Amino acid sequence: MITVRAPATSANLGSGFDVFGVALSRPADVLRVERAERTSIEVTGIGSEYIPEDPAQNTVGAVAKALDAPAHIRIDKGVRPSSGLGSSAASAAGAALALSALYGRDLSRRDLVPVAAEGEAVVSGEPHADNVTPALMGGFTVAADRMTSVDADVPLVACLPEIAVSTRDARRVVPDEASMDDLVHTVGRAATLAVGMCRSDPDLVGAGMEEQVVTPRRAKLITGYNRVREVALDAGATGVTVSGAGPTVLAACRRGRRQAVASAMIDAFVDHDVEARAYQTSIGRGAEVY
Ligand code: HSE
Predict the structure, then answer these.
(1) Report field, pTM of the whole predicted structure over 0.85
(2) Which listed residue, of 158, 159, 236, 272, carries a Cα 20 to 30 Å from 254's Cα?
(3) How far is the CA of 168 from the centre of ligand 1 (A)?
(4) Are 261 and 235 spatial neighbours (Cβ–Cβ below 8 Å)?
(5) Which domains occur in the chain, in start order?
(6) How much distance in Å is there from the Cα of 290 to the middle of ligand 1?
């Protein structure tokens, strides 16, 4: 049997829509995987009641099929589904790593990215790689023609409100076109963010998160977003954006300010009658075999 810890991830980071991602040091899913004649899946943990155990409908079932690696897979969810924290990607990446090790497939983490992305497509409708890339490779990642990653040390708060936003709904509000002005603005911010990651500089990372095409439209799906953003910035966040498709709100923070930012964000959600929890987290490693 193989046990794998697979991290939550935050995709987009504002200016890197469908491209940027980070692995988070917490929360994470834990998968226990054993060879079997046919694939079967058991799910426990946060939000497990919403996850189908039928291999044809589950992200890890698709991964097992793609690798031709049937197994009994137990998933203990630490990453809530429909949170914007790469819940399905964590399970897909964890299963890809575990099954490839269990069956002795000669595949690198980079090779496993498209396999895990296919698994993700079962739930999101399209095979995005911006969550599975950091879930496998760790650090800050750029999911483009060349998949690249860099380790970075930036304090983060991921504040998860008790609201459900499905990726499918959040993609419906993304416009088909953007102006040249918006394109120039976004490229500038994305480049700033990437330099900030290479330097582990929270100020540059926060400044680079700002984006004006997708984020304002998605923010409307999150009750209290504007106030949560404002109080986080006042408490020591350097930048705030929607994590993935939401509803988690991600804040990059000055060093030593995570606790204050987390409390301020939770209080602002509660002021809007929304319960929330906050993970004080950082940029972490990809999935790991125990
Ligand atoms: N980049 C994707 C989105 C992440 O924001 O829709 C969720 O799969």
Answers:
(1) yes
(2) 272
(3) 9
(4) yes
(5) 2-148 (3.30.230.10), 152-282 (3.30.70.890)
(6) 29
Best substitution site from 167, 168, 248 to test ligand 1's pocket, by max atoms within 8 Å of Cβ? Answer: 167
Closest ligand 1 atom number to CA of residue 124 = 8
Per-residue pLDDT of the chain (290 residues; tens, 9 = 90+): 999 999 999 999 999 999 999 999 999 999 999 999 999 999 999 999 999 999 999 999 999 999 999 999 999 999 999 999 999 999 999 999 999 999 999 899 999 999 999 888 887 677 789 999 999 999 999 999 888 999 999 999 999 999 988 888 899 999 999 999 999 999 999 999 999 999 999 999 999 999 999 999 999 999 999 999 999 999 999 999 999 999 999 999 999 999 999 999 999 999 999 999 999 999 999 999 98
Closest C-alpha among 58, 62, 63, 99 to residue 81: 58
- Name the residue with tokens 């923010």: 219
Return d(Cα 23, Cα 97) in angstroms, integer.
15
Q: Is residue 168 classed as helix, strand or coil in its secondary structure?
A: helix
By residue count, the chain amounts to 290
Q: Could you tell me which of 135, 132, 101 has the C-alpha nearest to residue 114?
A: 132
Q: Could you give the CA distance from residue 126 to residue 172 in angstroms, rounded to a whole number?
A: 13
